[in-house]
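Duplicate of #3305? Posting structure anyway:
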């Protein structure tokens, strides 16, 4: 059954999908947006966590004033948060749902296939409906790109993760299920550190295994307002203070002009694994932190997991736990987007897994656009954060409007 022919179809209803949809609608285009609003935040991030970004950098881009996080707080009868107050995930989810209800009608039918068609693309739904459209914007988030080190992933055997013995941080909305268990958490970034804190607070025994020789924390371990001099030497940006961070925010439009290998190196190194200042005292001196160590192999013995750990400067030991939780981030791979027809995926030029994109977030398949984490290889680490919607959404909307 073939139905409407909108100008564009947006796949995903997270912050980037909602922002792009709002800007496309603001240009008067007919669009259809598919997804479960804020699903990855509601179902794959643990209760009790806080956003890594400050409140002033956590608004979803809209084509008009009145839809910022602060506007939501006022509409909800609350005082907007100051930047030294961490933003609870529960409030961000409520904000995202409010934003969606105000600006973007969303359909929750599942998209099973995006193939080339007469008008550009045929978008097939699980219901059997086929939508013909000139443009498709992929805002599918990060979940499909979850990375688990091979030594740990082997614990799952032929079973899909999560299993009793191994999982990724994105598999859990409630870590209290591990109360009374011994858990090895792998990683030194925000998700690993916050999971370690929440696990401990839920009553689990926590062993944080970090390959790096030290943990990195953002700013001070107690927040304070920076002095004028500090603002000069470490200018503020939506992703944190410092010239390198201010540059990736203000220079995102110039990022694509860098050589590919330089871009990919910067994406990996700038804003690498670190924890927010307000997590420091919930981790250090509280959980078993093992820096400079790596799990080289893991096996199930009886009802336990035996982790074979190698130390940075030599030496090995075993760590016996009930579960291994990978907080090891995400690696973009276009082939993980199974709803894209193989012929469509084959037409997308790659740069180390990332789609190669033009100035309007357009891929090498005419009419196919990528935003969010998938666009970080072209536009830099800013695309990993909500505040990156301010850069991405209006550019995508302008590019789509010109194309259709």
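Output from current build:
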């Amino acid at each position: 059954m073939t139905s409407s022919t909108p100008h564009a179809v947006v796949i995903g209803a997270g912050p980037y999908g909602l922002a792009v949809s709002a800007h496309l609608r603001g240009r008067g285009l007919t669009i259809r947006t598919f997804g479960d609003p804020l699903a990855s935040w509601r179902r794959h991030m643990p209760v009790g966590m806080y956003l890594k970004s400050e409140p002033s950098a956590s608004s979803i881009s809209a084509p008009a004033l009145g839809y910022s996080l602060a506007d939501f707080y006022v509409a909800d009868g609350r005082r907007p948060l100051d930047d030294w107050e961490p933003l609870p995930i529960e409030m961000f989810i409520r904000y995202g749902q409010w934003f969606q209800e105000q600006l973007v009608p969303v359909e929750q039918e599942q998209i099973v296939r995006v193939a080339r068609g007469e008008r550009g693309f045929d978008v097939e739904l699980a219901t059997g409906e086929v939508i013909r459209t000139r443009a498709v914007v992929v805002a599918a988030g990060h979940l499909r790109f979850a990375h688990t080190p091979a030594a740990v992933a082997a614990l799952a055997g032929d079973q899909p993760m999560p299993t009793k013995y191994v999982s990724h941080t994105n598999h859990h909305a409630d870590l209290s299920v591990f109360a009374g268990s011994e858990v090895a958490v792998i990683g030194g970034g925000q998700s690993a550190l916050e999971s370690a804190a929440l696990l401990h607070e839920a009553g689990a025994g926590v062993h944080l295994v970090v390959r790096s020789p030290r943990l990195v924390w953002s700013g001070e371990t107690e927040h304070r307002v920076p002095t004028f001099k500090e603002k000069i030497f470490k200018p503020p940006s939506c992703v944190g203070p410092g010239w390198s961070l201010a540059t990736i925010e203000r220079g995102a439009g110039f990022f694509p002009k860098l050589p590919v290998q330089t871009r990919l190196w910067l994406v990996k190194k700038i804003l690498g694994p670190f924890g927010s200042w307000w997590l420091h005292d919930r981790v250090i001196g509280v959980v078993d932190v093992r820096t400079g160590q790596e799990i080289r192999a893991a096996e199930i013995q009886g009802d336990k997991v035996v982790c074979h750990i190698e130390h940075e400067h030599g030496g090995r030991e075993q760590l016996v736990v009930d579960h291994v939780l990978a907080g090891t981030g995400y690696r973009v791979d276009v082939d993980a987007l199974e709803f894209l027809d193989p012929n469509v995926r084959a037409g997308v030029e790659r740069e180390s897994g990332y789609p190669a994109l033009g100035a309007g977030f357009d891929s090498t398949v005419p009419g196919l656009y990528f935003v969010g984490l998938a666009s970080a290889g072209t536009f830099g680490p800013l695309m990993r954060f909500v505040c990156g919607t301010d850069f991405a959404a209006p550019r995508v909307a302008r590019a789509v409007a010109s194309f259709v």
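Confirmed duplicate; merging threads. Residues 65 and 71 are 9 Å apart (CA to CA). The chain has a mean pLDDT of 92.
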